Amino acid sequence: MFSAFTQRHCDALLSLRPNETKIGQQVYLASAERSLGQNAQDANSAGAQFAIIAIAEDVGPRANLGRGGADDAFIATMKQFINLQSNRFFNGNECAILGQISLNTPLPATTSVDQLRQATAQLDDIVIAAINQIMQAGLEPIVIGGGHNNAYGLLMATKAMTGLPVAAVNLDPHSDFRPREGRHSGNGFSYAAANGALDHYHILGLHELKNSEKTLEQLCLFGATWHSFQQIWVRRELPLDQALTQIADALNQTQLPVGLELDVDAIANMPSSAATVAGVSLLDACYYVHYIAQHCPCKYAHFAEAAPACHHSGIEAGYRDTGQALSELMYAYLQGRLTSLN
Fold first, then answer.
1. I want to staple 332 with a disulfide (CB 3.0 to 4.6 A). Which of 11, 165, 290, 306 is the partner?
2. Where does the chain show beta strands of DSSP type E?
């Protein structure tokens, strides 16, 4: 199901001031009367290069025995993002804000794990179809909200569009390369690898004690690589900028389209299904996003797992922190890509 983000929705969130122009006044907004594909085509015709789309779901994290709440990041983010200033650094007309995709029917808290995993597989088809439409319209997707299970749909859609498997990099304490036991947020990359959509995979910030030995064995058999969280942020064996140079060089050597992935549970104190106090800073996460966006041929950005309701100080703080963090991550990606493309 597609729910458009229209002028009416934007106006309800905008806070206008005299002598200022906000990003929400400059972006392309969707029409409720048109399909996702038609809106994407119209946005491209209007000059947009990027499409912001949300996935309103938490069945993937719940199917992975995690907490819900990843279905509620979009409005919190838009309230922050559209009220940023349009100025010489970023105009806003490079972007279209299209809206949200979701399952047709929400699943209650009593839904069994098997049913949640079946629903996650159904969601895969919705994500693949939606991202295909956006890419076919000539727009580069920036995907927020939902579980990290949606990496599978993004990778599959990118392969379908380009005819090539994807080289992916993921800032995440978890590799999400767990066994293919039914779809959930912990095995999007292993399913993509098995289906030929993932050829090269690097994890930045992999936590040495948050991945099972079975998962690590599967990563090694696939040929995946990583820089661990402890290696860079704890033991300081390698500076972050040096690690990013290595990662970008390896991605570019593949000569494949690049998928930029980030699970917000990598960021300290971000509300998510698997929130942590021992994570990277938001500034380091933004640096990662900007560097890869600028130096690699990215086809999409995916910022997954934000769950405002999981904030330790309550949902109001969750909305504020989620909105601010995802807005900064999106701007880091947009700035990096615009520098690269221009």
1. 290
2. 2-4, 28-29, 50-55, 95-101, 140-144, 166-171, 198-206, 225-228, 258-263, 298-304
As a dihedral over the C-alpha atoms of residue 55, residue 56, residue 60, residue 62, rounded to 10 degrees, the angle is 160
Cα 151 off chain centre by: 8
Q: Which two tokens stand for residue 15?
A: 């806070």
Count up the domains in the chain and report the number: 1
CA-CA distance, 53 to 4, in Å (whole number)? 9
Find the CATH number of the domain harbouring 89.
Answer: 3.40.800.10
Would you state the pLDDT for residue 273?
A: 81
User: At residue 299, what are phi and psi to the nearest 5 degrees?
Assistant: -105, -20
Report the predicted TM-score, pTM, of the whole model to 2 decimal places.
Answer: 0.97
Distance in angstroms between the alpha carbons of the first and the last residue of the chain:
35
Reported as a single tens digit per residue, the pLDDT across 231-247 is: 999 999 999 999 999 99
Q: Which residue has 């990496």 as its token pair?
A: 151
How big is the chain, counted in residues?
Answer: 342
List residues bridging with 168 in a β-sheet.
201, 259
Residue 341 scores a pLDDT above 90: no
Pairing of strands 50-55, 140-144: parallel
Report how far residue 39's alpha carbon sits from residue 61's, in angstroms, rounded to the nearest whole number: 29
Parallel, antiparallel, or unpaired: how do β-strands 140-144 and 95-101 relate?
A: unpaired
Taking only the tens place, the pLDDT of each residue in 265-288 is: 999 999 988 889 999 999 999 999
SS (H, E, C) 84-128: CECCCCCCCCCEEEEEEECCCCCCCCCCCHHHHHHHHHHHHHHHH
Look up the domain containing 207 and give its range: 2-341
